[in-house]
Amino acid sequence: MRKQARKWNGRISLKGLRKATVILCWIRKIYIPLGGNYSYNEARDFTKLLCYFIHEKLPKLTSMERAVKNRKGKIYLDYLQNRRGQTLAAPYCVRPKKGAPVSAPLSWKEVKSGLAILDFTIKSMPQRLTEMGDWFSPVLGKGVDIAKAIDNLEA
């Protein structure tokens, strides 16, 4: 999965999103800041459009198939994660795994070979935050302009 994510990085133009996008450890979730400027339906539809766009551009690398067995190792684009009442692991939360790994926001540059779930733990996260700051805070800021981001998809 990490190898596939590295191939994906930079292969499609998401000019309106790249700087504002935060990715969590193990490529589980990508957050796009919307600044509270859009309705639930607008945000959901935007996410769906992005997933279809990415899948159209990278069909050998991505899948829209919900059944894991039918994905054949592809990156799953899950726009259905954006539905009312859906839960998810928040950034910086400790995961219920041996070694207490933490859902860590990463830069695209950190998504590389050798990335391991225990690189980010309850013990290492305080130092990371001190040295690098809170990489998730931009998601809580101004947000992207959906119309401009859509216009930039093919630009």
- Describe the global form: globular
Mean pLDDT, to the nearest integer, reads 78
SSE succession: HEEHEEEHH
Give Rg in angstroms: 16 Å
Number of strands: 5
Beta content comes to 5-15%
Adjacency order of strands in the biggest sheet: 2-1-5
Helix/strand-derived category reads alpha+beta
Largest sheet: 3 strands, antiparallel
Give the end-to-end Cα distance, rounded to a whole number of Å.
Answer: 27 Å
* H/I helix tally: 4
**Helix coverage percent:** 25-40%
Low-confidence stretches: 7-26
Task: Describe the model.
This protein has 155 residues and is α+β, with helices and mostly antiparallel strands. The protein has 4 helices and 5 strands; from the N terminus they run αββαβββαα. The chain has helices spanning 2-8, 40-57, 125-132, 146-152; strands at residues 22-24, 30-31, 62-63, 75-76, 105-106. The strands form 2 sheets. A 3-stranded antiparallel β-sheet has the order 2-1-5, with no helix packed on it. The longest helix is centred in the first third of the chain and has 18 residues, at 40-57.
